[in-house]
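Q: what sequence does this backbone want?
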């Protein structure tokens, strides 16, 4: 008998996940509260961008069982993949997870499994989701199975990673973990690791926190090096020759909807016990100010001085500007009186928060070319652009332009390896009070 799955939330994770389950032979009901999303999908149009999505969707429409609708219906398994937005105080808002759980209550039957894929603070399954089911009269873990199975896919590689990555399956109890694991065995080629819901919640958050803390360490190294006259990039290369060291790369800050957000979901649970995570967030959040300060050293009297900003997405070769530190850099440059011209070949002008320029327009008469994202286009920077500048100075905060690519005759290249050559001004320190 074909197994039936209801996926609640047809976003970046829920929609690709639905298609993968459909291709694995399940009957899939995709549920989304947005009428726009539901009608687009039923008309055969995809509403998000992801490599391979269009083709896979058309294949599923023709050869497999998937339909989109606004309400759930009876199924064997319910997968909740709704957003967990962040409140102004950085705490997680789990309202959508709760309302999605409530939405499936009328359809639940004995033996069903409810799986939460959304990123959630530790203990949310035990303290928030399970009580919704218990209140409705179910014995959780005996009549209804409940699990947290966090997704860990990288945008752009979602279809490969959904299948190939190892999958953590965190059960409310061992029976729940086993039931949920059975579902993922249908397509996951990586290892499926069974654990408790709480460990799964914490593991997912710690993966991104690990990166945040390590990036903060690299950013702190960059600041110290700029201040005392050390080549931070060389130091990273040297230290990483050690077999057990992997210093990360400094940059203009940390963006995206995961690494810059997930640590807060742990911090909110025990602020007094998380000084390292809190400091890391503060250090990474301080990087846009550091970049603006370095830009100010290149163009000391900034009033009206033109700065060409290349790249505003949160990382290279994507079109996503969510939480991008570049947005803050642009904003702060404007506040400091610079005349900023933004160029990003991956961002559509109509979706950009600023007026966008071509590369040529952006650099015309500029006194600094500030690179904030490592798009491939910038790694192979067209040097003829430099001749259009008032003074051909590049500040590459992603360290993506090879110094050998820019001969001295073409211009001056600064990156996090030689910031100390800029005249010394006290660098922005994160006040200790802010770290608490
Ligand atoms: N960055 C640095 N220095 C580095 C590495 C990254 O400054 O050495 C910056 C990037 O420029 C970017 C940010 O950090 O602004 C995050 O970029 P990323 O590519 O490292 O991560 P994401 O947010 O695109 O995806 C992460 C992934 N998590 C890990 O690598 C631990 C992915 O596997 C997760 O699925 C995703 O978060 C998520 O959903 O949580």
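A:
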């Amino acid at each position: 008998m074909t197994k039936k799955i209801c996926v609640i939330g047809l976003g970046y994770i829920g929609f690709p996940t639905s298609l993968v389950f459909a291709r694995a032979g399940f009957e899939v009901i995709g549920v989304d509260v947005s009428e726009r999303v539901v009608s687009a999908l039923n008309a055969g149009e995809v509403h998000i961008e992801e490599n391979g999505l269009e083709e896979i969707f058309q294949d599923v429409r023709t050869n497999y069982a998937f339909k989109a609708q606004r309400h759930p219906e009876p199924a064997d398994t319910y997968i909740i993949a709704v957003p967990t937005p962040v409140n102004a105080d950085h705490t997680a808002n789990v309202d959508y997870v709760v309302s999605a759980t409530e939405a499936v209550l009328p359809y639940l039957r004995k033996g069903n499994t409810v799986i939460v894929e959304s990123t959630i603070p530790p203990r949310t399954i035990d303290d928030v989701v399970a009580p919704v089911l218990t209140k409705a009269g179910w014995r959780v873990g005996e009549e209804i199975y409940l699990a947290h199975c966090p997704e860990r896919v990288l945008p752009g590689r979602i279809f490969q990673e959904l299948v190939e990555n190892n999958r953590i399956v965190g059960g409310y109890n061992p029976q729940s973990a086993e039931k949920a694991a059975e579902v993922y065995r249908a397509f996951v080629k990586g290892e499926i690791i069974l654990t408790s819901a709480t460990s799964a919640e914490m593991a997912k958050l710690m993966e991104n926190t690990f990166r945040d803390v390590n990036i903060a360490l690299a950013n702190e190294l960059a600041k110290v090096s700029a201040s005392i006259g050390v080549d931070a990039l060389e130091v990273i290369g040297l230290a990483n020759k050690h077999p057990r060291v992997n210093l990360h790369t400094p940059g203009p800050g940390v963006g995206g909807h995961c690494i810059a957000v997930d640590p807060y979901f742990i911090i909110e649970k025990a602020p007094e016990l998380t000084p390292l995570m809190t400091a890391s967030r503060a250090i990474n959040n301080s990087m846009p100010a550091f970049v603006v300060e370095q830009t100010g050293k290149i163009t000391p009297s900034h009033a009206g001085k033109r700065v060409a900003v290349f790249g505003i997405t949160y990382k290279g070769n994507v079109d996503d500007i969510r939480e991008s530190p570049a947005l803050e850099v642009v904003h702060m440059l404007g506040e400091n009186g610079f005349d900023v011209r933004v160029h990003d070949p991956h961002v559509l002008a109509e979706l950009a928060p600023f007026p966008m320029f071509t590369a040529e327009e952006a650099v015309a008469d500029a006194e600094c070319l500030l690179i904030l994202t490592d798009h491939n286009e910038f790694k192979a920077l067209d040097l003829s652009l430099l001749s259009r500048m008032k003074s051909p100075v590049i500040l590459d905060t992603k360290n993506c332009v090879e110094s050998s690519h820019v001969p001295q005759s073409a211009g001056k290249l600064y990156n996090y390896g030689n910031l100390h050559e800029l005249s010394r001004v006290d660098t922005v320190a994160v006040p200790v009070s802010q770290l608490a």
